[in-house]
Every structure is written in C-alpha cells, then in structure tokens.
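Example record

The entry below shows one chain as it appears in the dataset: sequence first, then structure tokens.
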Amino acid sequence: MSELPVTFAASGIDRCTALRREPARLAGLLSSAAARIVPVWQQRCLADGSAALLLPPAQLGLGRDDLARLTLLGRRGDDVLFAIDLAEQEAAGLGTARFRPLPELMGALDAADAALLAYARAMINWQRQHAFCGRCGSANRVEEAGFVMVCSRSGCGARSFPRLDPAIIVLVHRGRRCLLGRQPNWPDGRFSTIAGFVEPGETLEGALRREVREETGIETGACEYLGSQPWPFPASLMIGFHAEALSQDIRLADGELAEARWLSREDIAAGAVTLPPQTSIAFRLIERWFDAGGGRTLAELGLGGPPLRLRQAPAAG
C-alpha cells in the first residue's frame, strides 16, 4: 500500500549525523558560502509567501564563535542548514511581523520547506524544554551540534537526547460508515478522527483500542497501520491506522469529545461535517477510506477543511 502523503515529512535533508561530532568541520562550513540559517523566534518561523527564508550567517552577524548557539539540520542541495533561536533584538532586526506561527504557514509552504521549518522549530523547542538537568536541576549545555544536552555540574553529566511523544490517530469504520468526533473547543461542525497519546507499557494497538473505547465507547478489532506524520505542536509523532469497529453504540465517557457521529460517504460528500485540512494525517486517513468506496474522490470534491481555529475560552468575570 502506498504511503500517505503528509505535511512535515518530505524535507529532502541529509541530516549528516557524523558531522555533529566534528566541530572544526562545522566551523568551516559555517564560514562557507553554502551556510544558511533557519531562524526561529518565539516558536515562529520566517517565511515569504510559499518559501522559507534562509539567511546567510553574515546577515545575523554570526561567525565561528557562535557555533554553540546553532543546531545543524543537515544538507539540502548545496546548502548546509543551521537553526537558531533568536533573541528579541535579533528578530527585531529582521522585522518580527515576518515571523509567523507554523500552523498558519502549513497550507502556504511547499512540502520541503514545511518539513524544514517543522524540523528546526522542533529542535529549538526541545532545547528550550531541556535547559536544565532533569536529574539534579543544574544548567545544561548544548553539544553535538544541538542534538545532545549535557548537565554542566561536575559529577552529574546527565545527557538528554531529542524525544518525541508517540500518539495514535485512527479512522474507525463499520460497514459503510466511519466514526468522527469533535472536541469541545472546536467550531461547530468541525470533526476529525480519534487520537491520543501512547502510555508507558502500551503497544500502539493497545493505545488505539483504549483511546477509542475511552472517548466513544466503541470497541475495535482488526487494525491496519497506514502511515505517520511528524506533528511539531510541540513534539508528537502521529501514527495512523484504520480500525474495524466491533460495536456501534456511542457513549462519550471521558469528556474528551463534545460529539461523535457515524457518517457515511454520502454524508461526507454532502458536507454534513467540516473535515480536517488536507495538510493533516487525519484528512489522509479519511481520504483513504472514502476513496475506496469508488466514485469521485475526496480531493475531487474539494472537502478538506481550513486550518483549525480554536474557540477562545470566555473571560472570567
């Protein structure tokens, strides 16, 4: 079965893992014409229209002495790419209005640039979250071109490495209908697949069955892995499945969903609900099931939803 086409996955980057342990070579590359910087400011990314803006180090005043601030992302074509977490005054020099939240850029960027910015943002976020040692609380220092955080206290030296939170995401189906749900803070009519984090001691299949049962009361049987999507909000890996339902009576037990519905292909084609955007693996899971029914495809119907805008909680009064 072909892979699901998903956003944030097709970066075209050679990550150059061995280079992370060669600071002298990295310093030389940073000084070369091939070096380009991917700036991140307050988890926002720099882009112009459909393209990420990659800056020469000199534009940010960066030289060999700044190597410890940079994270080696790897090579893409002729470029050697580094990410940097900009301070307020550095971002101001580039015009902070040009930095935009990554979710706003998802539909505008081409696949390679969307994946590149997600990669850079995820690494910066991980470093920020691990500024201090989880064992003794001392400050960490960055090593191996941004991919290892090492405790600075003598006698501790604990090392931290980039981590992801695995989460299952599943389209449950039964006969000619599929199961979709709406979270309480989503707009009315906005529905998606069921998802949740994998807990310690669980298999992916076990997490799938638990999440579907907890959120909807539906029991599931056979499941099929279809693909995955890096999801840098902040650091998840969405692992996508189809699963067969063994029951049909919906019971919203844990408060995660405001609604859940069984929907036929005819319901979806008629626009009974707003679907997730085409940039999400949730849409791709629905699309794979929908298109298997024959007739016009989901893409031909143009039913992918807009980027999600969460409802604001009412002000306390």
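Notes for this example: The longest strand covers residues 220-231. Residues 310-317 have pLDDT under 50 and may be disordered.
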